[in-house]
Structure to design on (268 residues):
């Protein structure tokens, strides 16, 4: 299947995109943002870039800048903007609070307001009406298992072969992203190359030849699957359980990768 081509100017484009995105409040690290931009630019398929969970627009700006430069079409950003994500509970905001106006302001400040198709809605509601092909599915919404699984099940049927699925916070103390990644992706021959960058888990959809990546996925699955029993009950980790989680997480390879190295992984 198709060779991945890295645009000659990608490093400069990622630098410019991160310069805009880093100013936006959020939880995305630089190496994670660069991975998102690399995926958006390099996936060898047409289709939508779909972001589930936008908060104040950090990853949206990163993706929007890259998509605008390469003419990839709008980034579809889906978020009810109501702070119900468990990751956002530390903000201790009023139940009626919303990130929506900050999100819009940040898109405009970054110059990508016209590059983003905004859906202020729950992803499950958008999924019911969705009918477009997807080249990159970026899941960063409800981190419970039920929430992450619903996002995967709702949108994955539209991911085109050679498209990529990525989940945020797969190496944080949430059940959803790590379970979906291990159980639905690493253990499936529908998927090819896979990996972690910081706390992002990603894999390419390869329904025709995913089996040839089985060894690589199995090696990753062996270390990543050990986290699942510790987060399966979705209770806050404490004491020995928390120590064990950190120990097992330390065994998962998660360093940043450059665009050329990432493309080489996809080519096998």
């Amino acid at each position: 299947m198709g060779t991945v081509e890295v645009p000659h100017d990608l490093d400069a484009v990622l630098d410019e995109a991160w310069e805009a995105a880093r100013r936006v409040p959020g939880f995305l690290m630089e190496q994670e943002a660069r991975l998102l931009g690399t995926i958006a630019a390099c996936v060898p398929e047409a289709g939508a870039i779909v972001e589930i969970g936008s908060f104040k627009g950090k990853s949206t700006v990163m993706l929007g800048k890259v998509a605008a430069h390469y003419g990839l079409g709008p980034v579809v950003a889906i978020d009810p903007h109501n702070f119900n994500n468990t990751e956002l509970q530390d903000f201790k905001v009023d139940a009626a609070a919303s990130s929506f106006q900050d999100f819009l302001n940040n898109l405009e400040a970054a110059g990508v307001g016209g590059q983003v198709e905004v859906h202020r809605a729950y992803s499950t509601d958008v999924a019911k009406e969705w009918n477009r092909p997807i080249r990159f599915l970026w899941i960063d919404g409800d981190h419970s298992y039920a929430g992450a699984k619903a996002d995967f099940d709702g949108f994955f049927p539209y991911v085109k072969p050679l498209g990529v699925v990525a989940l945020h916070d797969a190496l944080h103390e949430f059940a959803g992203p790590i379970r979906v990644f291990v159980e639905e992706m690493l253990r499936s021959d529908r998927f090819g190359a896979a990996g972690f960058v910081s706390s992002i888990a990603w894999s390419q959809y390869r329904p025709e030849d995913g089996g040839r990546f089985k060894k690589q996925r199995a090696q990753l699955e062996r270390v990543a699957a050990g986290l699942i029993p510790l987060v399966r009950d979705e209770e806050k980790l404490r004491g020995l359980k928390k120590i064990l989680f950190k120990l097992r997480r330390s065994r998962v390879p998660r360093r940043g990768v450059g665009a050329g190295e990432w493309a080489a992984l996809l080519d096998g």
